[in-house]
Every structure is written in C-alpha cells, then in structure tokens.
Amino acid sequence: MSRPRLLIATRNPGKMREYGELLRDLPFELVSLDQAGVSEEVEETALTFHENAVLKAVTYASLAGMMALADDSGLEVDALGGEPGVHSARYGEGLPSQQRRQPMSDQDRVALLLDNLKDIPWERRTARFRCVICIARPSDDDGIATAAPVTGPLVGSVAGMIQYEPLGEDGFGYDPVFYLPSYGMTMAQISMEEKNRISHRADAASRAQPMLQKLWADS
Fold first, then answer.
1. Are 74 and 130 within 8 A, CB to CB?
2. Mind telling me the catalytic residues?
3. Does the first or last residue of the chain, that is N or C, have fewer Cβ atoms within 10 Å of its Cβ?
4. If one looks up domain 5-218 in CATH, what number appears?
5. Burial of 113 by CB count in 10 Å (0-12 exposed, 13-18 middle, 19+ buried)?
6. 95 pLDDT band (50/70/90 cuts)?
7. Sequence spans of domains, the chain
C-alpha cells in the first residue's frame, strides 16, 4: 500500500532534507513543489510569519491537490528592531546597491546583515530564529484548500547571537553567523542530527507531528 503524499511547500533542497529527518517517523511520502509539478510561486506578502505560512499552505494545497505543510521562518535580530524578520529570504533586495545583481545569494544577505551590525557590541547582538508552520488540505467539494483545524500557529524558535564572521559548512541561509552559546559554535558547525534536535524548524515540526498523525488517521 502506497503512503499518502504530503507536500512540503519549498524548492529548497536543504529545507527538504531537514523535513525528511524531522518527519521521518510519519507515514507520509514527502514531496517538494518541484516534485509535485507546482511551478507557481506564492508571494509572501503578509506582515507576519503566521499569515505567510497560512497563505502558502492554503494556496499550494489547492494547486497541488494534496495536503500541504508550509512554514515561514526567519531571523529576528534585536539590535535591528526584529529585522530581517519576515523579509529574511529577501533581505536587501530592492536596495539601490543591489538592483544590478538580484536575486541576492545567501552570502550577500549574510554580508549585508554583518554590515548593518558592524557597530553593535557583542552583548547587543542577540537574535533568534523563528518558524511558524501551517498545514492545509484541499476541500472535498470545490477544490479550494482550507487550513487544517489547528487551534493556533505552530511556532518554534531558537535563541542565539550574531557573530562577526561566517563559520561552518553544514547549514544554509544565516546559519553560518548564528552563534549558539551553549555549543560554542554556529548553527552551520553543529551536526545535522543536533540541528534537527534544537532548531526553530525542529521545534515547530515537533508541534506539527500530532496534527499530521491525526490527519493521517482521519483520512
């Protein structure tokens, strides 16, 4: 008997690998947007992680015709008033200095972040990764997706500091500058196994697993 498919609303191979580990005990075949044949892009136009996660989950569930899990996540730096926040994946795009070389790479965004923090002392470089997950499924009648009946956003976070230079090869995004005081290393220096135990996405995914188990049992 084939396993039910669960769309993970991403094209990012690194994120797919993480979810493959985080949800490995669930009875689903995980598929990416590309594997599901979804070419459309949902613009993250909302002002909060929760609203963006709902927007992506609902839209992609409808487009793919299958249950979808979407997250919106990002880095919140206290000294920058919570920025880049919901703009983490697009940080710096649209600035005059970037107009000739969009889209920016992860390295470009990290460099911009470090430049914006260049005068901030260590004790004020506190930050957190935050992740909000939403699960949606297509309705049975008109094909329009409706969000799964969760009682609230599935939120995960991990606290750390923004160090002065990138270190580590195992992460992506801002991982190389996100320093974990309890480890004495960046998120990109710890093992994938350890990252999947303590990360913001791991935290949120652990909260999503009971809901996914229930949805599978009820299907």
1. yes
2. 72
3. N
4. 3.90.950.10
5. buried
6. low
7. 5-218
